[in-house]
Amino acid sequence: MNSVYHWTNASAAAFVVRAIIFSLAGIALLIAAILARRKIRRRYFDRLADAEFYVRQHWDEVIAGEISRDEWREVHGDAEAIITQSLDRMESADAKEEDKLLDFLRRTGLLDRMLTEARHLRGWKREASLVRLGRTRAPEAVASLVAALDDPSPETRLAAVRGLARTGLRSAGEAMLDRVVAGDLALPGTSLMNALIACTRANPRVLLPYLHLTRGPVRELLARVMAEVASVALGDDLLLLASDALPEVRASVARALGHADFGFAFPALAQLATDAEWYVRLRALTSLGQFRETRALPVLLRGVCDANRHVRQRAAEALAHAPDPIGVLSDVLKTTDAYALQAMIAELDRTGDFDKVMEGLESDTGRIGRVEGQELLRALEAGAEGLNTMMRLPGTRKVPESV
After folding, report:
1. pTM: predicted TM-score of the whole model, two decimal places
2. Domain segments of the chain: what residues?
3. Do residues 127 and 163 make contact, with C-beta atoms less than 8 angstroms apart?
4. Domain 118-229: assigned CATH number
5. Are 343 and 359 in contact (CB under 8 A)?
6. Is 278 in contact with 310 (CB distance < 8 Å)?
7. Exposed, middle or buried: residue 65 (CB in 10 Å: 0-12, 13-18, 19+)?
8. How many angstroms separate the CA atoms of 218 and 183, rounded?
9. b/e string for 90-111 if b means 16 or more Cβ within 10 A?
10. Per the count of CB atoms within 10 A, which of 133, 186, 217, 327 is most buried?
11. DSSP 214-239
12. What is the rounded CA–CA span in Å between residue 30 and residue 74?
């Protein structure tokens, strides 16, 4: 009995010793693997840092071809550093330097290398390569990026859209628009909308055929894009869009007309200032206020009496910059709209001109009649007092004693 018990204890002890040895060996191997990996990565990043430093020191010679590409094209670190440096410089380069850098990437085969990576890599490496390819803004990159839109992975499709957005090219915008209209491209969030904005901003006319053909959610998406890119470059088409069924399109027209000639823009803006949607009226009045034209005063006076508070504030902002603020205040008082007068007082107070207007009325400069001036002065004082009372924070209330 004792011998069996002794043998069992010896076996258990041997098992425990072996388990401890194997655990320690496993821990040691894990630590060794971590240290080896850190050392390898450290050497890799040191190599990249050295390559980046070398490229920065000899950048002009590399671009000019004075340093042969055979010296660096076979070295992974040098080639990556040159690609990174080229793309970083493209972000802030003018058109001439951008063409020079793109020609360099083509001539040295680096652009072909990026095209190959975008086609054949998989996973996150392909996603990174697609975005990097878009940064080149090369027309030949569009085909590879568009092909990636058919990838089953949503992450890859999103990376392709971001790459197309980085190109900013019309062909990239048209390719995405074709797929959006056909129902083959839909992404959550605003990535697709931002990409379309980036690719159509230089030529918003690209959107017009698609905007006229689509309906439903797709047309709403294109309307939001048009709201960001619409400009006077659309010409007479801009006036046609002022009667569009979607308020987002009408609002985009109102904002774009603020950069047109007043004679061209005024009829459409006067119409949009009476739109059923408040934000369309707001943008129309904002554009009218930018012209500082006396012919726009009647429309702005209607706007300062608007039912929407934001529209009243925007109209008051435009009226406060009129050449004759006292005359404008007199016209506002004649509307008998208390909210309009409050909006004007608040805007004059914000710009610091309220005291100047009060001094002008008290000095009786003759711009309006004496009786009318006194009436306007009393109305301004009462309005300012009422506005201050409304904006003042309530004091601490006393708790009534119990009876």
Report:
1. 0.70
2. 46-108, 118-229, 320-390
3. no
4. 1.25.40
5. no
6. yes
7. exposed
8. 9
9. beebeeeebeebbebbeebebb
10. 133
11. --HHHHHHHHHHHHHH--GGGTHHHH
12. 34
Helix (H) and strand (E) counts for the chain? 22, 0
Residue with tokens 């990636």: 148
Residue numbers of the chain with a pLDDT score lower than 50: 393-403
**Integer CA distances (angstroms), 356 to 34, 71, 190, 327, 368, in order:** 74, 73, 47, 14, 16
Length of the chain measured in residues: 403
pLDDT score recorded for residue 87: 87
Model pLDDT for residues 156-186, shown as the tens digit of each residue: 999 999 999 999 999 999 999 999 998 888 8
Strands (E), 252-369: none
User: Rounded distance, CA 299 to CA 256, Å?
Assistant: 18
Structure tokens at 378: 């009393």
Tally Cβ neighbours within 10 Å of residue 280.
Answer: 24
CB-neighbour burial class of residue 307 (10 A; exposed 0-12, middle 13-18, buried 19+) = exposed
Question: In which residue are the tokens 């007043």 written?
Answer: 262
Between 124-135 and 76-91, two packed helices, what is the crossing angle to 10 degrees?
50
Per-residue model confidence as pLDDT tens digits over 31-87: 999 989 888 878 767 676 766 676 777 677 777 777 776 666 655 557 788 888 888
CB-CB contact of 300 with 314 (8 Å): no
Cβ(284)–Cβ(254) under 8 Å? yes
CB distance 79 to 49 below 8 Å:
no
Q: How many CB atoms lie within 10 A of CB 348?
A: 22
Residue identified by tokens 């020079």 is 100
Q: Are 292 and 262 in contact (CB under 8 A)?
A: no
Cα–Cα distance, 384 to 100 (Å, whole number): 62
Residue with tokens 């630590």: 31
